[in-house]
Amino acid sequence: MSSNAAPAPVTAAPPSVPSALLALYVHVPFCQTRCTYCAFNTYAGMAARIPPYVSALLSEIRLVGSAGGHPPASTLYFGGGTPSQLPAEFVRQIIRACAQSFALDPSAEISFEANPGDADGAYFRALRQAGVNRLSIGMQSAHERELRLFARRHNFDDVRATVQLARQASLPSVNLDLIYGIPGQSMGSWQRSLEAALTLAPDHLSLYSLSIEEGTPLHVRLLSGRMAAPDPDLAADMVEWAAERLSAAGLRQYEISNWAAPGHACQHNVHVWRNEPYLGFGAGAHGCAARVRYENVTSPDDYIARISAQQGTHLFPLSAATATAAALRTAEEMADTMILGLRLTEEGIDPAAFLARFGRELWDVYGSALDRLLAHGLIECSASGAVRLTRRGHLLGNHVFSEFV
Ligand code: SF4
């Protein structure tokens, strides 16, 4: 669909009854420097654009929120990019706009991604005062060699100091992101990184397998032969070891890549994995709500220009920055529900919830795929009848998900 076009009307709406609440995502596409593995929609050297970008964000939030009849929001997530590039006053204004436009509850989970070593105690206190209650820190590794390979600007001392400042600012939930499967990384160096992270007593850990994306400096290095490809078997052993170690440390795995102490699972991401409606604001942000999937223009300059020039009204959930939008078909919504929901390793897919949402029995729709996956030991049925991945299925998630595409 072309820019700003309204989605095709959904003539025969199925009995789809997702949660009444919305999750909100705000994209901050600015970074001080770019990391060698990064394929996100982010830009370095554009700090001067931050004020007009935030003005545009506030306009977009208010415009989309001004459409009547939408549900309130239950969570807000600042992702990027590097949200900690934003002055705290801008963060406060964005949270306020979300609260006013989407009735975001004052006690809602508000997550914020931060780069280690970039912010001081006053910044974190201001974030806390503005309503942020969950900080996600991009630690990635405890080793200088690996951080240099990624062109990260921080070291482990910065991570330690950032966690300490977050705690002193009474931020109640702290996540650390780590990467495994790094070229040249041994099992020993991975174990030392994870043990270093655990010394900081994080409430939540996200462990990501390195994916070397086309067009990134790391990919160029791989193609030129200056770097060996990571060994996928070793990466699988790394995450297997981590799962046991984190379980022993009292962190529960609730998603393929995520572990949390009791009460610290990321509600925003759980909402998205349950395939419930969410709105994305900012350059390159995407969302799915009111049975429309959409994506904004990626360039921050285009985003600012489009929002500044907006005219007339736009159909919820779209804005002047929408680049593509498409009505969601029921078959797609069902497939997304399976692919996203199976990522929730404890919860999985509840057949009763599937029936309530789509008016069809899960096993009638996907019986043959589910039988195949059961036969291969990739999924199981929990005591309550929920369908979820086995441990083997965690490692072969992409194979499982391909059954529903
Ligand atoms: S800090 Fe994050 S978003 Fe920014 S370049 Fe590095 S990996 Fe990409």
What's the gist of this structure?
With 405 residues, this protein is an alpha/beta fold. It contains 15 helices and 16 strands. Residues 31, 34-35, 38, 40, 42, 80-82, 115, 138 line the site of iron/sulfur cluster (SF4).
Q: SSE layout and pairings?
A:
Layout: E1 22-28, E2 30-31, E3 43-44, H1 50-65, E4 73-80, H2 88-102, E5 109-114, H3 121-130, E6 134-140, H4 144-149, H5 156-168, E7 173-180, H6 187-198, E8 204-209, H7 217-223, H8 232-248, E9 252-255, E10 258-260, H9 267-273, E11 278-281, E12 286-289, E13 292-296, H10 300-308, E14 322-327, H11 330-341, H12 351-358, H13 362-375, E15 379-381, E16 387-389, H14 391-395, H15 397-402
Parallel strand pairs: 1-4, 1-11, 2-3, 4-5, 5-6, 6-7, 7-8
Antiparallel strand pairs: 8-10, 9-10, 12-13, 13-14, 15-16
Instruction: Pick out the low-confidence regions.
Output: 1-18
Number of separate helices: 15
Q: Strand order across the biggest sheet?
A: 9-10-8-7-6-5-4-1-11
Number of domains: 2
What helical percentage do the residues reach? Answer: 25-40%
CATH topology of the largest domain: TIM Barrel
Determine the N-to-C terminus distance. 21 Å
Number of strands: 16
Taken as a percent bin, the fraction of beta residues is 15-25%
Radius of gyration: 21 Å
